[in-house]
Amino acid sequence: MKKRLSAAMVAATLGFFALGAPAAQADQPYWQCVTFARMFSGINIFGDAWTWWRQAVNGFRTGHAPETGSVLVFQPYGAMTRGHVAVVSDILTERVIRVTHANWGGSRGRVEENVTVVDVSDEGDWSRVKVWYNPIRDLGTTVYPTYGFIYKEAGNAAVGAFENGRRMAQAGASGVQ
């Protein structure tokens, strides 16, 4: 009964908050998730997405709770052999966030903004998530394992980097240099 109630609460939250990702434009550049996440978040880590967590431990604050502008690091799973990284764009509830990311699923090479991600872990630690899948207008069926969140130090520099990354992504999408 508790799981059904939790599922109903998540569904109600999604119904209230989920707007889906906007359709990508044909003139956008081809984005890799790591290039986009680095630019959009200002967190300067390089290499495949799954390596970000190990690299971040020595130079960045890491944890298991979302913060706006932090990067959620997905573990390699199934066909996603190099992992994935996504930037938290909004926190809706303690178990529902929105991310902006690139090169995910049906949007190969494209940026998706404000995509809903739900924590489905038993502990509420964001170690297992489901991601909104726009073609079906619902959460996807796959549960993805994650390492956690990498945080940029708080303050105006992080906010500035986040906004600069957003402006650069929009300029790239419109062809403006």
Structural summary, described in words:
By secondary structure, this protein is of the alpha+beta class. The chain contains four helices and eight strands. It has helices spanning 2-17, 33-41, 52-59, 156-174; strands spanning 61-63, 71-74, 84-93, 96-104, 107-119, 128-133, 138-139, 144-151. The protein has a six-stranded antiparallel β-barrel. The radius of gyration is 16 Å and the shape is globular.
Q: Outline of this structure?
A:
This protein has 177 residues and is of the alpha+beta class.
* Shape type: globular
Q: What structural category arises from helix and sheet content?
A: alpha+beta
Termini distance? 54 Å
DSSP strand content: 25-35%
Count the E strands.
8
The portion of residues assigned to helices is: 25-40%
Radius of gyration, in angstroms, nearest whole number: 16 Å
Main sheet overview: 6 strands, antiparallel, barrel
Estimate the mean pLDDT confidence.
80
Order of helices and strands: HHHEEEEEEEEH
Question: Which regions are unreliable across 5 or more consecutive residues at pLDDT < 50?
Answer: 3-24, 154-162, 173-177
Spatial order of strands in the largest sheet = 2-3-4-5-6-8
The number of helical elements comes to 4
Map the helices and strands.
Blueprint: H1 2-17, H2 33-41, H3 52-59, E1 61-63, E2 71-74, E3 84-93, E4 96-104, E5 107-119, E6 128-133, E7 138-139, E8 144-151, H4 156-174
Antiparallel strand pairs: 1-8, 2-3, 2-8, 3-4, 4-5, 5-6, 6-7, 6-8
Helix pairs in contact: 2-4
Label this structure with key terms.
alpha+beta, disordered N terminus, 177 residues, disordered C terminus, 29% helix
